[in-house]
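Input structure tokens:
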């Protein structure tokens, strides 16, 4: 028998063994086998216990769900025909910072009483935690749905306690919803006709997710050139998704302009340029490059220093993300793009860093796959940082406009308050290094058949 014949025979034998093992675990009616049901039930009970303990802990901590109160006030302003960007909500006089479309989405909150709204916000966000984990597992290549659900329940039970998720639920923020919209898009098969709409809607709610459309457009353009040179059809799934995301964003924004013309004009001509409107740059909670530079330079406005550094990081981060996407390393591409957006945004509050959920899942999967000691240590260190609440160990002013201890930090205080930003930069560096280590691998073209495309992406991821 030739070498190819033996290889084919071995492959057939392995396939038969896999089918036999699958048949042994699957009951005749096609349902979940008893051991699988037990594992699912145990995981479900653990997740429910963790979520229940989380809910109780937040109530004992006296969380106010302050931001969801602002969202509700925005909804009332829209219903009453008021000036959306003159609004000062709650006793803290918080302004409206999102585009008008977000305020339109918040109007249903006005149909609920405050206690019911707070209960809904917490419960909905807990469901979104599970959804983010589930989609992140799909992103890193866990394809079997039953296996993914069991793992998602265990992982969600743990990651709900990390600081960005805790703070998101503490304020009733929408970060998890935005992450779900983006991840849903980016985990669809190449031929999915709806992929791109989620990113467009997310960007219409809050501008930062638009960077994912930029990543898709850049990768799509590079791939289009390659396909054209090879004499093939240049149109590809990345270009299609970026175009659909852009069209969705423009359509939603235009519709919002028709409903709220005055507020839309104010936002797109004034408020979109007010970088300090959400809060002070030097605030400890601001884990963007602008916040870190403000604390490092002891100034409320880092000015040109931030512009230059943010531009360099944007180019570097997008380059790593696009190259990762071109090499079918989708999980690295998506997380690098998310981290880049967080770093270069003028304000990235600690609760915006819920993208640490897919980052930690990716690092954990990679550490398990490569079994490298340094990689496991780095992953563990990243997890400790985001579970430790370390950035709150330093003196901080909170909402005070007069006392700004963040502008007078010593070296140790600065390092603690810069933790998320430094971790984000380190993650981009690791992603770039792994691309260099694998630069001898051939770049994988975008498949033209959806099923083959997803299988190839998983294989390379």
């Amino acid at each position: 028998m030739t070498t190819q014949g033996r290889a084919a025979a071995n492959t057939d034998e392995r396939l038969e063994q896999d089918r036999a093992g699958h048949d042994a675990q699957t009951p005749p009616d096609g349902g979940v086998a008893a051991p699988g049901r037990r594992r699912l039930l145990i995981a479900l009970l653990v997740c429910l216990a963790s979520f229940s303990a989380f809910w109780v802990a937040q109530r004992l901590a006296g969380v106010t769900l302050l931001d969801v109160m602002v969202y509700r006030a925005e909804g009332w302003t829209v219903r009453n025909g008021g000036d959306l960007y003159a609004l000062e909500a709650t006793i803290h006089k918080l302004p409206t910072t999102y585009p008008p479309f977000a305020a339109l989405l918040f109007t249903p909150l006005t149909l609920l009483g405050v206690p019911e709204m707070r209960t809904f916000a917490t419960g909905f966000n807990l469901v979104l935690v599970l959804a983010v984990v589930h989609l992140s597992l799909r992103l890193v290549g866990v394809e079997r749905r039953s296996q993914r659900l069991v793992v998602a329940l265990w992982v969600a039970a743990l990651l709900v306690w990390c600081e960005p998720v805790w703070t998101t639920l503490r304020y009733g923020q929408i970060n998890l919803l935005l992450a779900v919209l983006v991840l849903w898009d980016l985990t669809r098969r190449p031929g999915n006709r709806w992929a791109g709409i989620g990113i467009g809607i997310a960007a219409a709610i809050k501008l930062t997710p638009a960077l994912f459309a930029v990543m898709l457009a850049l990768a799509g353009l590079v791939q289009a050139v390659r396909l054209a040179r090879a004499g093939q059809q240049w149109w590809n799934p990345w270009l299609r998704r970026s175009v659909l995301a852009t069209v969705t964003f423009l359509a939603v924004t235009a519709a919002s302009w028709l409903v709220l013309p005055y507020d839309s004009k104010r936002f797109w001509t004034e408020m979109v340029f007010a970088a300090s409107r959400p809060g002070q740059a030097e605030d400890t909670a601001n884990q963007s490059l602008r916040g870190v530079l403000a604390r490092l330079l002891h100034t409320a406005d880092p000015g040109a220093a931030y512009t230059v550094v943010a531009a360099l990081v944007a180019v570097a981060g997008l380059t790593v993300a696009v190259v990762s996407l071109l090499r079918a390393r989708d999980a690295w591409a998506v997380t690098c793009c998310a981290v880049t957006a967080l770093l270069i945004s003028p304000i990235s509050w600690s609760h915006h860093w819920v993208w640490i959920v897919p980052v930690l899942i990716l690092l954990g999967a990679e550490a398990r796959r490569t079994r490298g000691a340094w990689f496991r240590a780095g992953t563990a260190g990243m997890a400790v940082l985001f579970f430790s609440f370390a950035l709150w160990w330093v003196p901080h002013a909170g909402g005070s406009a007069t006392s700004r201890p963040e502008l007078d930090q010593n070296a140790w205080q600065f390092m603690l308050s810069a933790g998320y930003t430094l971790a984000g930069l380190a993650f981009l560096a690791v992603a770039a290094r792994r691309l260099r280590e694998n630069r001898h691998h051939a770049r994988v073209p975008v498949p033209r058949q959806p099923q083959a495309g997803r299988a190839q992406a998983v294989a390379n991821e």
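Residues 1-12, 14-26, 442-461 have pLDDT under 50 and may be disordered. The radius of gyration is 23 Å.
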